[in-house]
Structures are given as structure tokens and as C-alpha cells.
Design a protein that fits this description.
The structure is a single chain. With 628 residues, this protein is α/β, with parallel strands linked by helices. The protein has three domains: 174 residues, Tetratricopeptide repeat domain (Serine Threonine Protein Phosphatase 5, Tetratricopeptide repeat), CATH 1.25.40.10; 173 residues, Rossmann fold (3-Layer(aba) Sandwich); 174 residues, Glycogen Phosphorylase B (Rossmann fold), CATH 3.40.50. It has 26 helices and 13 strands. The chain has a seven-stranded parallel beta sheet, covered by helices on one side. A six-stranded parallel beta sheet has the order 10-9-8-11-12-13, sandwiched between helices. Strand 4, helix 17 and strand 5 form a beta-alpha-beta unit. The chain is globular, with a radius of gyration of 27 Å. The two termini are 35 Å apart.
């Protein structure tokens, strides 16, 4: 459903600021009260910076710059601090202006050149960034952060060999630079080389066992590996627990107090798979438990973007905090101040998560749901919402959290705004079956391609239609075409298409007869949306919440026959459909005419029923917490 958590990145802008955050600014030879006052203001600003009190730190830096007769040393230090604060709080244009101001005073200031390049890179002004970073390394080839930032910019430009060389130069200068190791691992992950990426993330953790991004990404890439290595996954989860020891329990509160205050923490309260599953559930809760005074909802949105979906759901919340620029400490304090009873994590280990805040245990009861599909590994996460299919009896040991099963499904899709009825299956016109897949390329591993090769080789007339965001890139298309051919698939029988608008994406289902699911990382949003368009998905169920995601969705809409349990069965059933014939055409035509209605009446799309089930589960957890 979601993207992996941490992108390649550099360390925080270091250079002059990093040097001066750890020691006093060299004082100019001028014995005046201005110098003493400047030094005091600077040291106060640095102390505030270390405490993540960025507004106050910037005020001190402004006060420093306002001093009359300010020496150039302190002026540059204050500008650098302000620039770093601007970059840290996503005011990148201001950061660029401030770094340029430093360079007007000191054109060869290596740290400013490097950090200006980093700010421009974040603004996607990659060519400009490259110019300043090349200047930085020319002035000082042994400056590790400049080499690191140069690598990141080259990586953004798709110059991966040059980027890796820059990271290797960084490591030659600073063998313990964990960020360079992390960025190398992320490049391997982006190249879908999950085995090599796993080893590279482990190398970063060997240097810094507490490097959270490396551990998070190492855990996440395991979901793409096939066959799955459950033992390795569990070992990584134990490491999360070791790094996040349990916190003291909260004092109990009377169970009868109303309303119950529930907070949602998410980076995806917008047009995003999480938003699509959440919208109608929130609207149903607003008209029931919230309207009756039993429930108060609060949002902690870890994103600044607000779109139409955001506007739809925002009125359901009594308070909405945009927290993407907030430190963990500030967010934790706000949650405590809001007196949240139940804090719900909608991200798990995906992009934009705030799991370090959950590790601080700011709420008495903390629950993981929706945006992730495995244990968070945090001892502070009290429960994870599941269903009887995705976590059957006997698999509880895979979760650090208490497994709470909702009655039917852990997911409930909001019906898409598509009113046009599904078109007839294309096999009726084409005379052959068109298989399809709308998954991202990382999910299409060697095992999946091997299965698809068997299917296509047995169904000589069938075609395969793949649509993925990565296929918009010519290099990715060429690379993937090579993978198809290596797997024994005739590339001429495969249509590769890049991303399109949401409207055209739904229309694209009319060109597909059957979707072939990926494994061990199956579809979620795409499976539900295909059901709405009358297109069934053939899935392979494997152990774990993620592995059984397709199974849970299909069984909830009455398509148990489309669930397979091993590769041989997956291939056999696909071949039976793919060889076509009158009976196959009639069955597919029948599904096109009835599947949307069947899905709409199922637990997978019934938001009112799901909201009741969800709310009852949270109330039960709260009663147990307060009385147990």
C-alpha cells in the first residue's frame, strides 16, 4: 500500500555550523562588550537549536545579527545558523538566500557551498546544486559532507555510478560515516536489489546499531524478498524492542469518562491509499460515535499538503495539527497536552511515520492500524488491528502488539468516485485473455516473473499489460524489459505503461480481463479498486498480515475461488483462465456485470458496518486498559 520509509539523505548541514555547535566561535581580536554580547547570543542560539526550540533559536540569531559593529566571524556564524534552521524547517528558498549571503562575504566558504548545494538539491534544482557542490570539493576534496552531498545530488540526477563513487570517497575520509553507507543501501533498494540492499543496511547498522533509518529500511525491504525469511524478520523486530525499552504504564482512568479522545497520527490524510480507505470510515464515525458525544477525534497530520480528500475528512476532527515540521519532543508534548486516550498509528514503518513519538508513550493506549501490514516491533504499541483471515489463530507470535481481530476485515475501502459501469471484458472483442498488473515494479520479483513466464508460455495467445509509475522512466523500462526476457517472457507480448491520471487509471481496467497479484507483497488499494471496476484478482496467499492481504479482501467479497495457496496452484488457475473458451468468457462477463454491486454490499466497502466494528474494538481495548 505504501512506500518504504526513509529516502537517501545527508546528515544535517554540518560545515561551519556543525563545527561551531560543538565549540565556541573563535573570538575576534576585539575586546568590546559587543563581542561578549555576540558570543552570549550565539551560544544561547546553539543551545536552543540542540533542544529543537527552533523559533527561539532563530530569534537569538536575529538578535545577534542586529548588534551594531558585529564582527564578520559572528555575522557569518549567525547567517549559517539561520540558514540551517530555515532548511531544517523546510524554508528552502530562505536557506538558499542566506547561504548565498555567506558566499558574498566569503566566496570560498566550503560549508556554505556544500549546504547551498544540498538546499538546491532538495528544491530539485539539481544542476545548480551540482555546480556549487563541485566547487566545494574542488576547494576541499577532503571535506566529507561535501562529498556526501555531491553523491546525493548525483543520485538524484540518475548518475548512480558517480554517486556511489562520491559516497566511497566520503567513506575514505570518514570510515564511520553511517549516512554514506545508508545512501549506498538506498540506491541498491531503488534498483530493486533487495539482497544487496539488506547487506548494505546491515553494514550501516554495524557502524551505528542505533541508526533508526537503516533499521527501518532493513525491516521494510524484507517484505519484498521472496521467498520470505521469517526468522530474519523476527530477529530485526527484536532489535527494535531492544532499542525501544518499554515505558512505565499510565495511571488508570475511570472507564466511564466520556468522550473518549482518539488521536490519529499519519502522513497520509490526503489522496493516498490510507486516505482512500479512511475517508468513509471517518465520515461514518462522525455521524455516529462523534455525533453522540462518545468520541472525539484529533488529527496529527505529518504532511502540509491539503487536497480534496483532506478537506472531506478535516471536519470530522475536533482539532487538526500539522506536525511535519515539529520535533518529536514537541509532538509528544502536544499529544500529552491534548489528553489523548488512544493514539492510533496509521503509518507503521512506511514513509512519514512518527514511531519515535509512539516509543515515548505519550498516550495510555496506542494502536497500530491501516497503513502498515506487520508488527511495528515497538513494545509501546499496545495493539494492532487485524482480521480473522490476515492473522489466523496461531500467528500471534509474529506480532509484538496484542492482536485484535475485527469481525470481517481490517480494511474498508471508500467507494471511488467512478459512476460509469465497467465495460465488457476485452476477451469478448480480442479473442484472447489480457492479464494485467497495476503494482509498482519493486513488487515484481524474480519469483513473480517466473510464475508469469509459466502462465504465458502455457497460454500462447494471452497478453500481459503492466502499468507502474517507474515505467515512465526509459532506463527503468529498459531494465525491466531485460528482466522480462531473462525470465523467459517474450517482451513483445507485454505492454508497459507509465503513470496516468486517476480517471485514466480506472478506465485502464477496461483493457484487462484478470489481474495477476504479486507476492509476497500483494496489492491492496489496486485489488479493491479493480473489484469496483469488475476485474477479479488472482492472488497467492502467504503467511503474515501482508501475505494474506489479497486473500482477506477477496474472501470478504465472496471470491474465495480466486485465492491460491502455492505457486503451482497460482499458475494452474491462471492458465485455466488464460486459455479462454466459452465458459471463461461467460464467467468473466458475469463478473463485470455483478462484481461492483457485490463488492459494494460486502464488508470491504460497507463503511457504516466497519465503523461500528472498529469503534467497538477500541472501546473494548479501553475498558481492558482501565480495568485490567
Amino acid at each position: 500500500m505504501k512506500k518504504p520509509p526513509a529516502k537517501g539523505r545527508t546528515a544535517q548541514p554540518s560545515g561551519m555550523l556543525a563545527k561551531m555547535l560543538g565549540q565556541a566561535v573563535p573570538q575576534p581580536v576585539r575586546s568590546t562588550s559587543t563581542v561578549e554580547q555576540a558570543q552570549a547570543l550565539y551560544e544561547a542560539a546553539v543551545a536552543l537549536y540542540h533542544r529543537a526550540e527552533w523559533d527561539q533559536a532563530e530569534q537569538q540569531a536575529d538578535a545577534l545579527l542586529a548588534l551594531p559593529g558585529l564582527h564578520a566571524t559572528h555575522e557569518v556564524a549567525a547567517l549559517n545558523l539561520k540558514a540551517t534552521l530555515a532548511a531544517r524547517t523546510h524554508r528552502l528558498e530562505l536557506a538558499v538566500t542566506l547561504y548565498q549571503a555567506i558566499l558574498k562575504r566569503q566566496p570560498a566558504h566550503v560549508e556554505a557551498l556544500s549546504n547551498l548545494g544540498l538546499a538546491l538539491q532538495k528544491l530539485k534544482r539539481h544542476e545548480e546544486a551540482l555546480g556549487f557542490l563541485k566547487q566545494a570539493v574542488q576547494h576541499r576534496p577532503g571535506h566529507a559532507n561535501s562529498q556526501l552531498n555531491l553523491g546525493l545530488t548525483l543520485q538524484s540526477l540518475g548518475q548512480w555510478a558517480e554517486a556511489r563513487a562520491a559516497y566511497q570517497r566520503t567513506l575514505a575520509i570518514e570510515p564511520g560515516n553511517v549516512q554514506a553507507r545508508f545512501n549506498i543501501a538506498k540506491m541498491l533498494q531503488d534498483a530493486f536489489d533487495f539482497e544487496a540492499a539488506s547487506k548494505a543496511y546491515q553494514a550501516a547498522l554495524d557502524v551505528d546499531p542505533r541508526h533508526a533509518d537503516s533499521l527501518a529500511n532493513l525491516i521494510f525491504v524484507q517484505h519484498y524478498r521472496y521467498p520470505p525469511d521469517e526468522a530474519a524478520q523476527q530477529a530485526l523486530i527484536r532489535r527494535v524492542g531492544e532499542l525501544n525499552p518499554a515505558r512505565p504504564e499510565w495511571p488508570r482512568r475511570a472507564a466511564g469518562k466520556k468522550p473518549l479522545r482518539v488521536g490519529f497520527v499519519s502522513a497520509d490524510l490526503r489522496k493516498h491509499p490510507v486516505g482512500y480507505f479512511l475517508r468513509d470510515v471517518l465520515l461514518a464515525l462522525a455521524s455516529t460515535a462523534v455525533a453522540s458525544g462518545e468520541l472525539t477525534l484529533l488529527a496529527y497530520a505529518n504532511h502540509a499538503l491539503a487536497d480534496e480528500l483532506t478537506q472531506d475528512i478535516r471536519p470530522t476532527f475536533a482539532a487538526w495539527h500539522t506536525v511535519d515540521l515539529w520535533s518529536d519532543a514537541r509532538l509528544e508534548a502536544q499529544i500529552r497536552s491534548d489528553e489523548i486516550d488512544i493514539l492510533v498509528d496509521l503509518s507503521g514503518r512506511t514513509a512519514g511515520n512518527r514511531l519515535p513519538v509512539f516509543a515515548a508513550k505519550p498516550a495510555p493506549l496506542q494502536v497500530s492500524w491501516l497503513g502498515y501490514f506487520a508488527t511495528t516491533g515497538l513494545p509501546q504499541m499496545d495493539a494492532i488491528l487485524a482480521d480473522p483471515v490476515c492473522v489466523p489463530t496461531g500467528e500471534e507470535s509474529l506480532y509484538v502488539e496484542n492482536v485484535v481481530r475485527l469481525s470481517h476485515t481490517r480494511l474498508c475501502m471508500s467507494p471511488p468516485g467512478v459512476t460509469e459501469p465497467p465495460a465488457a471484458p476485452p476477451v469478448l472483442t480480442n479473442g484472447f485473455i489480457t492479464f494485467g498488473c497495476f503494482q509498482t515494479l519493486p513488487k515484481i520479483n524474480a519469483g513473480v516473473l517466473a510464475a508469469w513466464a509459466q502462465i504465458l508460455n502455457a497460454c500462447r495467445q494471452a497478453r500481459l499489460r503492466l502499468q507502474a509509475p517507474q515505467l515512465n522512466d526509459e532506463g527503468q523500462r529498459a531494465s525491466f524489459t531485460g528482466r522480462l526476457q531473462a525470465a523467459g517472457i517474450d517482451a513483445d507480448r507485454v505492454d508497459l505503461l507509465g503513470p496516468v491520471s486517476r480517471e485514466l487509471y480506472f478506465a485502464a481496467h477496461n483493457a484487462v480481463d484478470i489481474l495477476l497479484d504479486t507476492f509476497p507483497y500483494p496489492g491492496g488499494t489496486t485489488t479493491a479498486e479493480a473489484l469496483w471496476m469488475g476485474v477479479p484478482t488472482l492472488t497467492l496467499a502467504l503467511p503474515g498480515m501482508l501475505g494474506r492481504q489479497g486473500q482477506s479482501m477477496l474472501e470478504n467479497v465472496g471470491l474465495r475461488d480466486w485465492v491460491t495457496h502455492n505457486e503451482a496452484d497460482y499458475v494452474q488457475q491462471a492458465v485455466a483462465w488464460g486459455q479462454g473458451g466459452k465458459e471463461v468468457c461467460e464467467k468473466l462477463q458475469g463478473l463485470r456485470g455483478t462484481l461492483r454491486s457485490q463488492a459494494a454490499q460486502s464488508p470491504l466497502f460497507d463503511s457504516a458496518r466497519f465503523a461500528r466494528d472498529w469503534w467497538a474494538a477500541l472501546q473494548g481495548l479501553w475498558r481492558e486498559k482501565m480495568t485490567g
